[in-house]
Design brief:
By secondary structure, this protein is of the alpha/beta class. Helices cover 28% and strands 17% of the residues. It is built from 11 helices and 13 strands. Strands 1-13-12-11-2-3-4-5-6-7-10-9-8 form a 13-stranded mixed beta sheet. Helix 1 crosses helix 9. The two termini are 21 Å apart.
């Protein structure tokens, strides 16, 4: 782990004066459409996952965004409406830990009428309390992160001494509230939790939920990423298949992040997300809106585009739409396709800030 890396936070520039949006379907310089919007509703988290918000960096002295800097629900909803008008079909609320944002179901209720597929990624720690209200507010789907079912491993990875049981209770509460299937995210790090891969598969088989294995990524600049720590998805599939034979399934739609595999015995399916070993930049249709209202066109970006100044400066929806369209049309990111040991150490914006 590096000594004390200062994470980049305010690395955004104001969008250039944008030409009027002509109404034609949006495509970037690589002809990728804009379909998916991830909104970070807070840069704070109650976990200190070692691969995401290492405690050495995100410590008591760390300056999270002040309240005045973060977008209000009204501002988020207004931007989301413009995004949907530009072709966005799916909105994911994330963070940080999104359920730390006070009254989140109120935001869900404001976004639900837009008609996009509305989803949330959470560490599950407070789902018992919030699952029903989220469902009632109109949330369509939930993804819960759970890196290990082994108590000691999970507590070490979340570095907040948080027990497995409470996350499992949260998943059960979400299921009782009517979310189905629930996706369970497991980030795999060599020598840390890779011995749990088959056990996790065994646990979630036949549950109706979908376990997804995520390759450890070099997001941000603080998680001490090394290629040696990545377990390629192909190895995950091989290990599970040796215990429970798998066969590949077609993607649900173009640009789906996870590759799907199903158990040959009919016990459901798993997903693998191989951002490192099988980059999916060619199909990436995601834009990210940071907690303080900057646009990011790649998870591994070094800079964003400040939309908040426009928003708070009294711009009308048309001017905001023009700015978003211009940022998307200029987009040429393909970080995961050109990743090298050298690019991995370049300063990048933290995932907790732009939204996982
Ligand atoms: N707090 C929420 C949670 O825990 O799901 C949402 C935010 S979190 C940043 C979103 C997802 O990103 C989680 O599933 C997390 O495990 C994953 N993630 C964070 N850092 C990662 C990394 N370095 N490599 C791979 N996945 C990562």
């Amino acid at each position: 782990m590096p000594d004390k890396v200062i994470p980049i936070k305010h690395a955004s520039r104001a969008p250039l004066p944008a030409p009027r949006y002509d109404g034609a379907p949006l495509a970037d310089t690589r002809r990728r459409p804009l379909r998916d919007l991830r909104i970070s509703v807070t840069d704070r988290c109650n976990f200190r996952c070692t691969y995401c918000m290492p405690r050495e960096v995100f410590d008591a002295d760390y300056k999270f965004l002040p309240h005045a800097a973060i977008l209000s629900f009204e501002e988020i909803a207004r931007l989301a409406r413009v995004f949907v008008g530009l072709g966005v079909k799916k909105i994911r609320l994330t963070g940080g830990e999104p359920l730390l944002r006070k009254d989140l179901p109120r935001l869900v209720a404001m976004l639900a009428p837009l008609g996009a597929d509305l989803t949330l990624t959470t560490n599950g720690s407070t789902l018992v309390k919030h699952a029903q209200a989220l469902r009632d507010a109109g949330l369509d789907r939930i993804t819960v992160s759970l890196d290990s079912l082994d108590e000691a491993t999970f507590r070490a990875m979340n570095d907040a001494d948080f027990p497995v049981e409470k996350v499992l209770d949260g998943i059960a509460a979400a299921s009782d509230a009517g979310f189905a299937p629930i996706k369970i995210n497991m980030v795999v790090k060599r020598g840390v939790n890779d011995d749990q891969i088959v056990e996790a598969a065994r646990h979630w088989r036949d549950s109706g939920h979908i376990l997804r294995f995520i390759e450890f990524m070099d997001v941000g600049s603080t998680n001490g990423w090394r290629m040696d720590d990545v377990i390629p998805s192909a190895e995950v599939v091989r290990r599970i298949s040796a215990a429970f034979p798998l066969e590949q399934v077609e993607a649900n739609y173009a640009g789906e992040v996870a590759e799907r595999w199903r158990y040959k015995d009919g016990a459901g399916e798993i997903g693998v997300i191989s951002s490192v070993t099988q980059a999916f930049c060619a199909d990436c249709n995601r834009m990210r809106l940071s907690t303080e209202g900057s646009l990011y066109t790649c998870l591994f970006a070094q800079r964003g585009h400040d939309l908040k100044t426009l928003l708070r400066g009294g711009a009308d929806d048309g001017a905001i739409r023009d700015a978003i369209a211009a940022v998307w049309r200029a987009r040429d990111d393909r970080y995961s396709e050109i990743r090298t040991a050298e690019t991995a150490t370049k300063p990048k914006v933290e995932m907790s800030y732009i939204g996982g």
